[in-house]
């Protein structure tokens, strides 16, 4: 069983945005975390990217009230203690991120490379994501369905 799983932006956005194509699967995974006592790990770069994506989506839908509601959820429910801060190490990861991007011929973006490197360094081998690019990293196992949690 996986007791700690990094939550990627694709999962986080889908869970919050009921119009997302992955919403149902993301909600089931979130319930699976509770059922199987899996601790979700939130990296600061994922929080940042999730807020950016959601704000853009709701702005484009002209749903300004939804933006305020979403930001309130983040302020009230994502306590500082539940965020793993990896941005302070970005200076150390920078060259390796660029190397991973080159190795994968640009298929992997900077944030995904950063997440993968941090996961390897702090020994977190599982990531909940719908982004298949994470399958490129031998040290990460992608969780995309509740059955993957057991």
Descriptive overview:
The structure is a single chain. The chain has helices spanning 9-16, 23-35, 44-60, 64-77, 90-103, 110-121; strands at 4-7, 39-43, 83-84, 126-128, 141-143. It is an alpha/beta fold and 150 residues long. The chain has a single domain (4-85, 124-149), classed as Rossmann fold (3-Layer(aba) Sandwich). A five-stranded parallel sheet has the order 3-2-1-4-5. The longest helix is centred in the middle third of the chain and has 17 residues, at 44-60. The radius of gyration is 15 Å and the shape is globular.
- CATH topology annotation: Rossmann fold
Euclidean distance between termini CA atoms: 5 Å
Number of strands: 5
Main β-sheet, spatial strand arrangement = 3-2-1-4-5
Uncertain parts? none
DSSP helical segment count:
6
- Major beta sheet, specifics? 5 strands, parallel
CATH architecture annotation name: 3-Layer(aba) Sandwich
Structural class: alpha/beta
> Which of globular, elongated, flat, extended, rod-shaped describes the shape?
globular
Beta-strand content estimate: 5-15%
What is the rounded Rg?
A: 15 Å
Element string (H = helix, E = strand): EHHEHHEHHEE
What is the averaged pLDDT score?
92
The CATH class is Alpha Beta
Tally of distinct domains = 1
Measured as a percent range, the helix fraction is: 40-55%
């Amino acid at each position: 069983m996986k007791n700690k799983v990094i939550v990627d932006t694709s999962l986080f956005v889908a869970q919050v945005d009921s119009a997302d194509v992955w919403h149902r699967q993301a909600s089931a995974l979130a319930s699976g975390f509770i059922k199987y006592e899996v601790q979700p790990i939130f990296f600061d770069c994922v929080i940042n990217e999730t807020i950016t994506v959601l704000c853009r989506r709701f702005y484009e839908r002209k749903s300004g009230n939804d933006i305020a509601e979403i930001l309130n959820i983040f302020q009230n429910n994502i306590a500082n203690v539940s965020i793993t801060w990896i941005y302070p190490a970005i200076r150390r990861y920078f060259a390796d991120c660029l190397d991973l991007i080159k190795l994968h011929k640009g298929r992997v973006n900077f944030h995904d490379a950063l997440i993968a490197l941090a996961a390897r360094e702090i020994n977190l081998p599982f990531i909940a994501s719908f982004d298949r690019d994470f399958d490129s990293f031998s040290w990460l196992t992608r969780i995309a369905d509740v059955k993957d949690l057991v």
